[in-house]
Amino acid sequence: MDLSFRHIRYFVAAAEAGSVTGAAALVGVSQSAVTEAIKSIEHQLGVPLLQRHPRGVSLTHEGHQFLRHAHAMIEALTAAGRTLSAAGRKLTGRLGLGVSPMVAGYFLADLLARFRRTFPGVEVAPSEDRRPFIEQLLINGELDVAILIVSEIEEKAALAHEVLARSQNRLWLPPNHRFLKRDRVTLFDICEEPLIVLSADDYGDALARIFRRAGLSPRVLFETGSVEAVRSMVATGAGIAIAPDLAYRPWSLEGDRLEVRAIADPLPALDVGVVWRRGLERMPAVEHFLQSCRQGQRPGHRAGEVTA
Fold it and tell me: For the HTH lysR-type domain, which residue ranges apply (predicted)?
């Protein structure tokens, strides 16, 4: 069962207002949003919670029972929020955070914003560099924690990590490309076309290993560390590219469209995760940063794997 806090709030508002219209005004959303939320709860519980009539809504017997539990859940979450907020205001210190270029572009801003809202007393000092250098800074104690492409970590004996997001790799194509007629494209097929290679965060090296293991040699037209350059070149028909879903957007900066297709050959996923030094007692700021990262895991990505 997957009851969201938002749905529960909407139900309580409807029960207290006695109408969907009143509930929508209380929580500041549309009437249809309130209606759909209540229907979702009723569907998951398998019982009607509200009786609809021309003057509004009233609680059924099951609705009265659920309302008591809903109030208890809201009170518990509110209390937890107050406790964490108080703890956040008390926590101080400095957190040295390393990030690699692609991670900085797609993960850093959200993670920092979430952590700073909860722990404003902690000074976060982010620094961007290539993954091998960040690994050494972690081992030397010059950084406390890092967000990296963990599927490429080299110092596995010295560093532990937890996967936050797993991104599959797909083929990026310009509109009207012949491969769009297929559901899946093989690596052999890809070698027939000019390839634009994304080199950021060792992605190009990982891609080269994939082709070598398959005994294939792609026709590399251009290598770049810029995702936007890859997007623009593919969209304008210069070539095709293999890239992770986390970087996909269907439009280039110039407004040209891109399409994607699955790759038939099994490719390793790109794992983004939080990394820290093994055997080192983690200070409170690091522990809370790890919790904040887990709370911000992206929907639809398999995550939570830990190597300690």
Answer: 1-60
| Paired sense of beta strands 241-244 and 169-173, if any | antiparallel
Bridge-based pairing of strands 184-185 and 259-263 is parallel
**What whole-number distance in Å separates Cα of residue 67 and Cα of residue 218?**
61
Q: Give the Cα separation of 44 and 67 in Å (integer).
A: 15
- Model confidence, pTM: 0.66
The secondary element (H helix, E strand) that includes residue 260 is: strand 259-263
Contact (Cβ atoms closer than 8 angstroms) between residue 130 and residue 269? no
pLDDT tens figures, 118-162: 888 899 999 999 999 999 999 999 999 999 999 889 998 899 998
Three-state secondary structure along 218-250? CEEEEEECCHHHHHHHHHCCCCEEEEEHHHCCC
Q: Which residue stretches of the chain have pLDDT < 50? A: 298-306, 308
C-beta separation of 149 from 202 below 8 A: yes
Yes or no: say if 297 and 290 are a contact pair by the CB < 8 Å rule. no
| Nearest Cα to Cα of residue 231 among 250, 247, 252, 259 | 252
Which domains are seen in the chain, by residue range?
5-88 (1.10.10.10), 91-167+270-307 (3.40.190.10), 169-263 (3.40.190.10)
Contact 133, 100 (CB under 8 A): no
CA-derived radius of gyration, the chain: 25
Whose CA is closest to 57, among 96, 23, 106?
23
Is residue 300 left, alpha or beta, with left meaning phi > 0 and alpha meaning psi from -120 to 50? left
Q: What is the largest CA-CA distance in the chain?
A: 72
